[in-house]
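hey
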């Protein structure tokens, strides 16, 4: 695997062999700027596959992508004299994206994953083209890719075409300094020669699920952190509401053996260990049991965890795949076979599934926040956690913002993969919409981060308002870290938005989890 080979290379480099790569490799390159190198076995596999393509190109029989047009135009045989132009043209014509620029980390993930497939030796791309792809990543040159253009079938065509266009020295790209300039200028400055495409190479650079897969891997990294954060904020809300931690007992979750549920309950129990608030101060308003949003927190967060586990399995399978059409097989002397492996359905489904799970996690977190602010349900807390209710409105509007985010997440949970719009004169008559599923999941992840930030903001304030009661050590650590980060506690009304922005970064950057884990140890 790429990660194990990369470990031998040193200097934080990720070395690409013929096998797949790990999700950690993708994140390291996309977000961490890790250097990419080609293993000797990859160079050998590239050369071997190229010899097969060259042999097929010399034959009189048409071979899709080598000596024919593309898509609905595949019926035309292309002579030798036009084949270089054919490959340039598919890149230029398919670079048809529109809309805002896609984030740098997504483009880098897409580029790296395409290179990973190229290095498998199943695409027929020459070693020097693969090296140029690595050089582009290592130079920090990021092609301009646009929001709209992929249907998630025949690969993420337009996004990948914009990346391939930069290899040709055409189009625009962002340099390592963040400035967008002509790609030709950036290549020249870094000593990278524009690529001259040979048979099949233009097609091979476009034909993969790399964009949607890259976004899936990045979302999984974010969601794994957010789900731990959600267990912490749920535990803080339970404390603030004087709830009972008895529902978190391991034996209760063992009789419904969903692994994610058990993990979430165990996390909450660790965060609540040593609390002087849980379950001991209900005499003034006796409760047989807490509301669903508190009592069922492990069930909802656990179901999301299990969804993440399934999505991770799909991502790992995809990371081990070589996706192209036609694909070069070296058995029987070598051949190129058409296939449908570029269809994004497996990835699209889990991207949509994750958006559903994230929306529900956001929804239950908002319900807990609302309960903290309602004097009729908060068990003794002031209305809206205000300093002087009536004169002060407290966190009333913070919950409005949270509710708006939940509403958006519910809309984003509508599956993109259930849609299909035929294209290419009905040759590509069923598509996955996986790119769209990935884009909306990225938005949902951002919204979930903000929703948890609002719950954190409310729960920490509510705990501090429980004067005379001692919160759990983990809660004290979280509150101390939040206040050290500039997130203010109880007091008269002030401009709330800056506090919420700080809380959002506190959640997104991992400070919330780090603060709790400083007491609890690693959370699942």
């Amino acid at each position: 695997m790429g990660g194990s080979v990369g470990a031998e290379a040193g200097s934080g480099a990720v070395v690409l062999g013929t096998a797949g790569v790990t999700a950690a490799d993708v994140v390291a390159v996309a977000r961490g700027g890790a250097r990419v190198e080609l293993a000797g076995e990859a160079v050998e596999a590239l050369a071997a596959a190229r010899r097969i393509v060259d042999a097929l190109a010399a034959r009189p029989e048409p071979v899709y992508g080598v000596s024919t047009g593309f898509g609905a135009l595949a019926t035309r045989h292309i002579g030798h004299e036009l084949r270089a132009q054919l490959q340039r043209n598919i890149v230029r014509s398919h670079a048809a994206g529109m809309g805002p620029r896609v984030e740098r980390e997504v483009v880098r993930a897409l580029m790296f994953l395409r290179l990973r497939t190229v290095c498998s030796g199943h695409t027929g791309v020459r070693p020097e083209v693969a090296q140029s792809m690595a050089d582009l990543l290592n130079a920090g040159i990021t092609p301009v890719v646009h929001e709209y253009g992929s249907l998630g079938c025949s690969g993420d065509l337009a996004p990948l075409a914009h990346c391939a266009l930069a290899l040709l020295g055409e189009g625009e790209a962002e340099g390592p300094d963040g400035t967008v300039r002509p790609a030709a200028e950036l290549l020249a400055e870094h000593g990278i020669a524009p690529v001259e495409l040979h048979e099949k190479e233009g097609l091979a650079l476009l034909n993969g699920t790399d964009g949607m897969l890259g976004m899936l891997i990045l979302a999984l990294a974010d969601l794994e952190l957010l789900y731990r954060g959600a267990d912490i904020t749920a535990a803080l809300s339970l404390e603030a509401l004087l709830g009972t931690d008895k529902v978190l007992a391991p034996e209760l979750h063992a009789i419904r053996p969903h692994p994610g549920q058990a993990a979430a309950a165990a996390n909450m129990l660790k965060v609540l260990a040593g609390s002087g608030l849980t379950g001991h101060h209900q005499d003034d308003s006796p409760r047989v049991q807490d509301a669903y949003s508190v009592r069922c927190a492990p069930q909802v967060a656990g179901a999301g965890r299990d969804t993440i586990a399934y999505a991770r399995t799909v991502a790992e399978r995809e990371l081990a795949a070589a996706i192209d059409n036609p694909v070069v097989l070296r058995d029987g002397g070598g051949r190129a076979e058409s296939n449908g492996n570029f269809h994004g359905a497996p990835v699209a489904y889990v991207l949509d599934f994750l958006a559903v799970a994230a929306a529900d996690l956001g929804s239950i977190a908002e319900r807990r926040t609302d309960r903290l602010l309602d004097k009729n349900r908060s068990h003794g807390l002031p209305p809206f956690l205000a300093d002087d209710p009536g004169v002060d409105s407290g966190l009333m509007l913070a919950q409005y913002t949270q509710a708006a985010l939940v509403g958006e997440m519910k809309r984003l949970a509508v599956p993109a993969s259930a849609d299909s719009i035929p294209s290419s004169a009905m040759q590509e008559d069923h598509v996955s919409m996986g790119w769209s599923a990935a884009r909306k999941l990225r938005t949902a992840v951002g919204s979930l981060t903000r929703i948890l930030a609002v719950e954190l903001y409310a729960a920490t304030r509510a705990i501090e308002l429980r004067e005379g009661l001692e919160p759990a050590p983990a809660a004290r650590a979280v509150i101390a870290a939040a206040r050290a980060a500039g997130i203010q506690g109880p007091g008269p009304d002030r401009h709330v938005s800056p506090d919420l922005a700080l809380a959002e970064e506190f959640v997104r950057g991992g400070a919330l989890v780090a603060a709790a884990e400083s007491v609890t140890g690693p959370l699942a």
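Residues 1-11 have pLDDT under 50 and may be disordered. Residues 2-208 form a domain with the Fumarase C; Chain B, domain 1 fold (CATH 1.10.275.10).
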